[in-house]
User: Fold these one by one.
Assistant:
Number 1:
Amino acid sequence: MRQKRPTGSEWESLVDEWYKLDHSGKVDLAEKYNSTYGTLKHWLSDEGATRKEPSPKMSIDIDELLGMKPRVKLDICCFDIESSNLTADFAILLTACIKPYGQAPIVFRADAYDAWKTNRANDAPITKDISDELRKHAIVVAHYGARFDVPFMRAKMLKHGLDPLPPMFGIDTWRIAKQNFQVSSRRLKNLANFFEIGDKSGVEGGLWMSAAYEGSREAMNKIVEHNVQDVLVLERLASITFPYLRSIPRL
């Protein structure tokens, strides 16, 4: 008597077993159901039965996973640079400030490097140190950073043979202001004054000239003070404008 096609869990068991067996095993399986190899193939074809792919398994156990150290600090840092000009091919890096959220600013200044005394045009050492610190963080906040600070750094890094920054995300407070606030100017100084989040005073242009061309320590000190104040105000601006952030794009 010809066996009817099994149903329910018995059918699922047959399908599962079928795809685990070689040809000889499938013939024996057909005999188990009082049927033939060809009949079982028709049953599977008629029902559209397919091989069940095994569930993916972790290649490491939980203890190993928890013991892994992240490659970046999963935090937000504020970033601002000061340069002798606005284009990388006509400028040198003077200072930079990276401030992990809620922590003290990390300051880089070109006159702290030996090259400053004999070849101020060589900003490779400070570029490397800035990029080494920047690449440790996951999200970078800058004001007009997507159009100045980050492209300037990328140009300098490529010029000096440094590896590109890893996959990171960027928040540009200038862009948030542009999309959400109808104000007379979206410059950091104007936003700081309007929202009353700190004094963002300007610096005389002559200070940049004195620093870049004369190597003035006094001028560099004032530029560093300006740089640090920028990231302090930037952090406050990021904090109050964060609710207006629509998305965080790749840097």
Number 2:
Amino acid sequence: MASLSRYAVILVAVASILGCDEDPGRPTSVPGAAGPETSQLILALRDLGATAEVIDIVPQGSGLLSAPATRVQVNGATVFVFEFPGVAEADAEARRVPGILAVTHWIAAPHFFRGNRLIVLYVGTDSGVLTPLQRLLGPPFAGQ
């Protein structure tokens, strides 16, 4: 029973981090976003006062990682949000990132963030982008 309680606490914490609340007037998805967790991340960024708009969807297999990516403009900068079918798939892909970092020439500092089924990539140093991402997803798991 204690593990069930801990699980419930974790779910509530994740929901609050991703901006889920019980406000019936608040949208639960973003038009054009690749998936539900991507939508929740965008809404949570907006709740923090950031501008966050979907630019387009990069189809699976044509991007840096194996999942489709939603290209999102956050406070004027491009952020790629990769949403995987499950946590296990996101974990497996996250293990590939150090190799990707080693063989890719970056135009600026790359920052890879993790959140449940998401891997989020921001290439740049703008604190107006990094700060809200770190508030929602924690420190980058790879990159600078």
